[in-house]
Design brief:
Order of helices and strands: HHHEEEEEE
Mean pLDDT: 93
Low-confidence stretches: none
Number of domains: 1
Largest sheet: 4 strands, antiparallel
Strand order of the largest sheet: 1-2-3-6
Number of strands: 6
Bound molecules: zinc ion
Shape: globular
Radius of gyration: 14 Å
Strand content: 15-25%
Helix content: 25-40%
């Protein structure tokens, strides 16, 4: 399965949502650039989604926009990672939210706390 324009539009929309829910607006270009560039490297839809997410996370981490994006609501010291289409706390093996459905509340220190409202065990 090749990566289509629809796949690119979909991941762009989902990831923009999750970025804006946590970091706020102003990062649309980063998501769009990575979604476009990843098509040069992968031509399988699921791998493509993973790569775009990884690349955007890498950017935020490396550029110190947010070194733990998206921050785990339980441990606050590590990012959530994408597994099976879900943002996942690897330490607890918990799915926190589906990609594109991340929710967060702003904190007094200007950061955010991801809502762990719908977490469930992996495979559950
Ligand atoms: Zn965690």
């Amino acid at each position: 399965m090749t990566v289509t324009d629809t796949d690119e539009a979909r991941i762009t929309q989902l990831l923009r949502h999750d970025v804006e829910a946590t970091l706020g607006p102003g990062h649309d270009d980063i998501v769009a650039e990575n979604a476009e560039r990843a098509r040069l490297f992968v031509d399988e839809a699921e791998r493509y989604t993973e790569m775009v997410v990884q690349e955007v996370q890498q950017y935020f981490h490396d550029c110190f926009v947010d070194t733990t994006w998206p921050e785990c609501p339980f441990h606050h010291r590590h990012p959530l990672w994408l597994h099976d289409g879900h943002w996942t706390c690897e330490q607890e093996a918990l799915h926190i939210a589906k990609l594109g459905e991340l929710r967060a509340s702003p904190r007094a220190d200007g950061r955010y706390t991801v809502s762990p409202g719908r977490h469930r065990p992996l495979g559950g």
